[in-house]
Structure formats: structure tokens, C-alpha cells
Design a protein that fits this description.
This protein has about 140 residues and is mainly α. The protein has helices at about 1-10, 10-20, 30-65, 70-90, 100-120, 135. The protein is about 70% helix and about 0% strand.
Length: about 140
């Protein structure tokens, strides 16, 4: 029944699994699917951080390479991403150990996004992140 419910009513399955856990009925748990979902949730947290880093880095690149377009919208986006990244790392402290690696990966994506949004050639942007993650997250930092 659990496997069928997992495929036909995911929400119902999650509620059933939570009830089984709450009641200590561990032998009735759909362990295989439950493990996959827990692992997937962890991946989701990582993807959210990578996405927020990409948006932050893209706007920092736009800030540096298109000074004539700087405005309140970019400033607020940079502030917003910094706040959300900070909160995300507070809620998921184990991601801090991977943050530098994730920043490097996200920076590559940010180059492509910045090139698409600005119309500038992607090779105009530095191939490696020109600031540290700490700088990028610093509320007072804006690239010159």
C-alpha cells in the first residue's frame, strides 16, 4: 500500500510516513522511498544556495561591468540575496563547509547569466571569482 500511495498521492504518503514515525511504528515505514526523499530534500537545500549565489554574483558582475546601469533595483537585489544566503546558511550550517566550493561552481553560472542579461561577451568577465565569498557576502562590499 505504501508504495502505491507514494506514486499516487505523495502528500498523503508523507502524512502517513510522519504518523508512522510519530507512533514509533518503524517496521511499517516505506524506508526506501523515505530515504530517497530525505536525500532529495538535502539536494534541494544545496540547489537553493547555489541559485542564490549565482544571482548575487551575476549582479555583482553587472555592477562592476555596467556602471552606467547601476540603480536601486540592483542594489536591492544584492542586499536581498545576501540576506537570504545568510539565513539559508544559518538554517543549514553543514552547507557552510561546502560554501566556497559551491561559490566557485555558481560563479561560472553567474558569468553566463551576466553575459545573457548584459549582452556582453562572457570572456569579458574574469574566469575565476574576483572576490572571496566573504567579500561577496559583506554588506558593505560592491566591486569597483
Amino acid at each position: 500500500m505504501q508504495n502505491k500511495l507514494y506514486k499516487t498521492d505523495f502528500y498523503g504518503w508523507t502524512q502517513e510516513q510522519a504518523g508512522l514515525l510519530r507512533d514509533g511504528r518503524l517496521s511499517e515505514i516505506d524506508a526506501k522511498n523515505l530515504m530517497e526523499e530525505i536525500e532529495s530534500m538535502g539536494g534541494s537545500e544545496r540547489r537553493e544556495l547555489e541559485s542564490r549565489l549565482e544571482v548575487l554574483f551575476m549582479h555583482l558582475l553587472k555592477w562592476k561591468y555596467q556602471p552606467g546601469y547601476r540603480g536601486k533595483s540592483w542594489t536591492l537585489t544584492i542586499k536581498e540575496q545576501r540576506r537570504k544566503i545568510s539565513r539559508h546558511l544559518e538554517k543549514n550550517p553543514s552547507l557552510k563547509n561546502k560554501a566556497d566550493e559551491m561559490a566557485q561552481e555558481s560563479y561560472g553560472d553567474a558569468i553566463l547569466s551576466a553575459a545573457r542579461e548584459t549582452g556582453l561577451e562572457e570572456n569579458l568577465f574574469p574566469a575565476h571569482m574576483p572576490w572571496t565569498l566573504a567579500q561577496a557576502l559583506d554588506p558593505d562590499f560592491l566591486p569597483a
